[in-house]
Amino acid sequence: MNISPRRRTGTQLDVIEHADEDDSAFRNPDDFLDRAHPENDQYMVAIERIQRKIMHASRMLRSKHVNIIKSVFSGMNYTEAAVENACSPVTVSRVVDSTYGRRLLDLLQYHMKLLEGPNEALRRNMLWRIAAKEELTDPKTSIKAIEALNKMHFQDKQLKNPDAGGHHQPQQVTININQQILPKGALDR
């Protein structure tokens, strides 16, 4: 497609001709864009987007108000946050309930959950969905998902009650150190 700029001369439009563009002048984006680079991962893009929103919400508040929000986010109640930031609990309540205060608190919570990743309940639910979806089309995948669910259940049961699955002795780890390569030192005596 050859797009030519137009130039107005008097009352009519003149077309200024250009030589045909050589396609070799344009580079393929895949030549310089590494799609497997961690920065291009959807997860990293989501984290950066939330961090930008957190910065924007922080700029909409005074620095003291941002510190109050961070105190509340860290788990302090309004009284403790007030003492920490040298203000009254009413001020803390007012800042937290403000539009930008609530937005910043919500964004911080969302960011924390994004960084933590999926919890055990989400992983179990995903395995169950895989098992149910693949039951008729690919039974091997369904069986593997159920095996993973069973393994998670067994490990959870073992952590909560070590005697539940029989009397298992903890595995012993033996470390052999080559004395010629690493002889005993002053601290080993």
What share of residues are in beta strands?
Answer: under 5%
Discrete helix count: 7
Please mark out the parts with pLDDT under 50 across 5 or more consecutive residues, or reply none: none
The helix/strand class is mainly alpha
Overall pLDDT, averaged? 82
The total beta strand count reads 2
Biggest sheet features: 2 strands, antiparallel
Tell me the span between the first and last alpha carbons.
Answer: 82 Å
Rounded to the nearest angstrom, the radius of gyration is 31 Å
Question: Per the principal axes of the C-alpha atoms, what is the gross shape?
Answer: extended
Which percent range fits the helix content?
Answer: 40-55%
Strand order of the largest sheet: 1-2
N-to-C order of helices and strands? EEHHHHHHH
Offer a few descriptive terms.
single chain, 189 residues, mainly alpha, two-stranded antiparallel sheet, 7 helices, 2 strands, 52% helix
Describe the overall structure.
This protein is mainly alpha-helical and 189 residues long. Among the domains are: 39-116; 120-160. Helix content is 52%, strand content 4%. The protein contains seven helices and two strands. It has helices at residues 42-59, 63-73, 78-84, 89-97, 99-116, 120-133, 139-160; strands at residues 6-9, 12-15. The chain has a two-stranded antiparallel sheet. A hairpin with a 2-residue loop joins strand 1 and strand 2 (12-15). It is extended and about 90 Å long.
